Amino acid sequence: MHRARSGFTMLELAIVMTMMGLLTALALPKVRAGKERADLRTGREAVANLASQARRTAIARGTPVQLGFDPANAKRLEIRLDNGTRIASSLDTYAQWKLTPFITGGVVNYVRFDAHGLARDANGVTRVLALQNSSGLRDSVCISGAGMVMRGTCR
Fold it and tell me: For residues 52 and 89, what is the distance between their CA atoms, to the nearest angstrom?
């Protein structure tokens, strides 16, 4: 007659711990990639909200407003008047989400909304505020010549 065992042997525990380690090692890259995509979407939403705020500010003040890079930090976006006076808090996409912003669709590094909310300096061309992370993933906010702020792929 054998007595019932209570507990696990060291070999059984080692096998289970090894299997858990392997599963964790396999899952970690997927979790990291998911976080990078989530940060990219969050950054895109923040930039789109800042662009919409710049447009609303131009209309409310009845004066042109720029959405562009802070002269002291090229990775920080800010809303300012044509004379360079910052009129809203800036957004540092790199410090918050490790995203590098850049503007395409023109020779200047800002988007200018006129008093009617139109992005006149774009000459009818859609301007793109793009974000890129260290892995090369990109997302964007598009601003049409009519001042429409669109998230995602620009057409």
Answer: 14
